[in-house]
Structure formats: structure tokens, C-alpha cells
Design a protein that fits this description.
alpha+beta, BirA Bifunctional Protein, domain 2, 2 domains, two-stranded antiparallel sheet, elongated
């Protein structure tokens, strides 16, 4: 048995030295280590030798098997390294100094406007908050002075979910109550005004046209402190618009009804696409509704834990809702609101350099 194993060792070493690829190596492995290979044949011959020699013979066979397996693994690693080096050597060379030719992506135009606005309001001391797209009925309506069966709910065309009392938020105002509770303690104990903006995606069952979509983006903002007035609201709106458009913009303030503000206003911007002459983007009116706003209703401040029944006017504040989608239309001269949600790369690629 010992002579037989020595003979197989020499044979394996000779054949292994001539192997230069993985397929040949695998054939050699099967010849020695498979169920019908040389090692298996040695184990079968082990049964034919005297019992007193089986222990020594078995140890020699196991040692030979381990040696073959180890050398096979070493050879496999050597061949793989050799093949990898061949691939590297055969790779086409190129001049690393040549300029790259890569089509870069970009932020979506609405994201560009949102980031710019966040920076503007942060410079004015506002916190930037986030809020869920799925809300309950209380935060979307009741906490905003819109009780059940109030006719103002018909204005929203809300998407209700199958989960009871859950809906897709129809306006970013749904976050007002949560923001008031989050910062109300700092206002009362430290005198820190509540100043926050909270952008987000909204959903309404709209009839889609050039200036209406069922999915759109808004940015809600509130400021609450003692002695806040409409003058503060107008100042912040003018500052924001001058920063966004980098030029004088014609605006108008007209009365508007929103249950959560009193008084309420509609801040309209003269259409920058047609210059006020009238087009499909502004419904041929020359004006585009951009920013519903007003003084926060006393009931909303009470529901948010800011004022009490005993002193419902201790704190006052203003709220505004910027239409990010429409603002992006004006800023980038986009005539159709549907362009933003269509995913048309030929249209969106224009904003790569922005």
C-alpha cells in the first residue's frame, strides 16, 4: 500500500505541474478525489489488507488525500491570479488625461426651489420641519377649525384611505397642530417665537390641466409670538419673493377664505410666463395664485395648546402656504404643470446646470 501511494504521489505531482487552466485542473481533481478517483480506489483496497496493517495504511491514505486537496487549492489560487493578470494585461489602454464624457443627472426643479426656499427661511430664523403624507382627519381638518360636515371640506377633494380616519394630506397645513405642540413649550417658557416651515407633497382629486395636478408640492410656514401682525406677514412674503426671483415681482393681496386664518388673503403673483397678458398657465387672467396666507385663527391656536380659554389672544401669528410647484413654474418658465410629474428626461435635463 505504501509503494502504491508513493507512486500516486509522483504521478499527481507530474500531472499537476503541467496544468495551466481551471478546466484541466478540475479534470485532475476528479481523477484523484471523486467517488471513482484514485483515493476512493485506495480506500476499497484497504479492505483487502490484513487487519494489523489497516490502521497504518488508513493514515497514509488520509494523509495523501489531504496533500492532494491542499495542492489542488494552491494550484487553483495560482491559476486564478494568473488569469486575472492576463485580463489586466489584455485590457485596452486609454489616456487618463482625456476629458470625461458623462451625462450628469440633476435635482428635480421642484427640489431646487424647495432647497432654495429652505435656505432663505433658515436665514430668517425659521426651522425646517418634515411631516407625514398620511394623516388623520383631526390634524388635516378639525385642528384647523374645519369641523365634521363643514362645507369647507368640499374644497379639498380629499383622498380617503380604507384605514378608518386616515387620508392623504390635502394641504401642508395639516402639520400646524403638531408643530405648535412641538415648539409651544419653548415659546411659553423661553420666549422663543415659533418660526417653522414644513414642505411636503399633497394630494387632491383635481381635474388635471395646465395649472392643476392631483399631486403637487407646497411649503407651509407659521410664525407665532406676541404682537405678530399682518405687517410681519407682508414683510416675510416680500423678502422671500425677492430672494427667489432675484428681481422685482408684481404681487397683489386680495381677501380669501380659509377656516384656519382670520383674516385670510390670497397673495397672487403676476404671471411671469406671459407678463400678465394671459395664458393657459394663468387661465388667461394674468395672475397666478401663489400663496394663501393670513393671521392664524384663535381656535387653531387654542387647539395647538398655544392660547387658553381665559386668554385666547395672548399670542398671535401668521400662516402661509406656498405652492412650490407653481413657484417652480414661474421661476423656470414651465408652461404646463404636468411636465413636473411626467418624468420626461428631455424636459428635466434642462435643469442640470441649475
Amino acid at each position: 500500500m505504501k509503494d502504491r501511494i508513493e507512486e500516486l504521489k509522483k504521478r499527481f505531482a507530474n500531472e499537476l505541474s503541467g496544468v495551466s487552466d481551471q478546466k484541466t485542473l478540475e479534470d485532475l481533481r476528479l481523477a484523484f478525489l471523486s467517488k471513482k478517483g484514485q483515493v476512493s480506489q485506495l480506500m476499497q483496497e484497504l479492505a483487502k489488507i490484513p487487519n494489523e496493517q489497516k490502521k497504518e495504511a488508513g493514515a497514509l491514505i488520509n494523509s495523501f488525500k489531504q496533500e492532494v486537496s491542499q495542492k489542488f487549492d494552491e494550484k487553483l489560487s495560482e491559476i486564478r491570479k494568473m488569469e486575472e493578470q492576463c485580463l489586466i494585461d489584455s485590457t485596452e489602454s486609454y489616456d487618463e488625461s482625456l476629458p470625461e464624457n458623462i451625462r450628469r443627472g440633476s435635482y428635480h426643479p421642484i427640489s431646487l426651489v424647495q432647497r432654495e426656499l429652505e435656505g432663505i427661511f433658515e436665514s430668517m430664523g425659521f426651522d425646517v420641519e418634515d411631516y407625514s403624507e398620511i394623516v388623520d382627519d383631526y390634524h388635516c381638518f378639525e385642528a384647523l377649525n374645519i369641523p365634521k360636515f363643514h362645507p369647507a371640506r368640499d374644497m379639498q377633494d380629499t383622498y380617503y384611505l380604507t384605514t378608518p380616519n386616515q387620508l392623504l394630506k390635502s394641504h401642508t397645513s395639516a402639520a400646524q397642530n403638531a408643530i405648535m405642540y412641538k415648539y409651544g413649550k419653548l415659546l411659553k417658557e423661553n420666549g422663543r417665537p415659533i418660526r417653522a416651515v414644513f414642505p411636503g407633497r399633497c394630494f387632491r382629486n383635481e381635474a388635471i390641466d395646465a395649472c392643476h395636478e392631483n399631486t403637487f408640492f407646497q411649503m407651509e410656514g407659521i410664525m407665532i409670538d406676541k404682537n405678530i401682525s399682518i405687517s410681519n406677514l407682508i414683510y416675510f412674503m416680500k423678502t422671500m419673493l425677492s430672494e427667489v426671483f432675484k428681481r422685482d415681482v408684481t404681487v397683489r393681496l386680495r381677501p380669501g377664505f380659509f377656516p384656519f386664518v382670520e383674516p385670510g388673503f390670497e397673495l397672487d403673483i403676476q404671471c411671469l410666463i406671459c407678463g400678465g397678458k394671459g395664458c393657459s398657465s394663468c387661465k388667461n387672467s394674468g395672475w397666478l395664485e401663489l400663496c394663501p396666507c393670513g393671521m392664524i385663527h384663535p381656535n387653531v391656536l387654542k387647539y395647538g395648546g398655544i392660547n387658553s380659554e381665559e386668554d385666547p389672544y395672548e399670542y398671535t401669528g401668521f400662516a402661509f402656504g406656498l405652492g412650490l410647484t407653481r413657484l417652480a413654474m414661474m421661476k423656470y418658465q414651465v408652461k404646463d404643470i404636468r411636465t413636473f410629474n411626467e418624468g420626461d428626461l428631455s424636459a428635466l435635463s434642462q435643469f442640470i446646470s441649475c
